[in-house]
């Protein structure tokens, strides 16, 4: 990364895929409030078991989160599954930041891509603590 120095890097795997950000919240009209869906909360809690602790060194450090999503791109009938992989990044970033110990707004860089995998659904993550080079 031009102009940025990687201070610390952690690699880990979460053996399931996060839900899409299109399906994070439910509206409870009778109570006039919005809350996270139970299945999203359950995924986040389960995913946090795999996330290592990362302590920000000081307020000038930022984070980069790179994710590789592995899943079967197709249904059994051969039609393509409509997975919005980029929409999974919000829930993933929130879960990683909460467990790792930094604020999610400090994630300023990153990437995602998908790998066709008929055997398992998972996400491989690299979190880097970075600082501007002098």
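-> sequence recovered:
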């Amino acid at each position: 990364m031009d102009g940025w120095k990687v201070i610390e890097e952690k690699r880990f795997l979460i053996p399931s895929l996060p839900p899409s950000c299109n399906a994070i919240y439910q509206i409870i009209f009778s109570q006039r409030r919005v809350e996270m869906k139970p299945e999203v909360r359950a995924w986040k809690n389960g995913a946090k078991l795999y996330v290592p602790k990362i302590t920000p060194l000081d307020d000038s450090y930022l984070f980069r989160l790179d994710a590789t999503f592995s899943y079967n791109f197709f249904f059994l009938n051969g039609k393509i599954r409509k997975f919005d992989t980029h929409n999974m990044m919000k829930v993933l970033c929130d879960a990683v930041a909460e467990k790792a110990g930094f604020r999610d707004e400090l994630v300023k860089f990153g990437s995602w891509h998908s790998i066709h995998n008929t055997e398992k659904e998972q996400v491989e993550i690299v979190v880097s603590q970075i600082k501007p080079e002098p």
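The mean pLDDT is 90.
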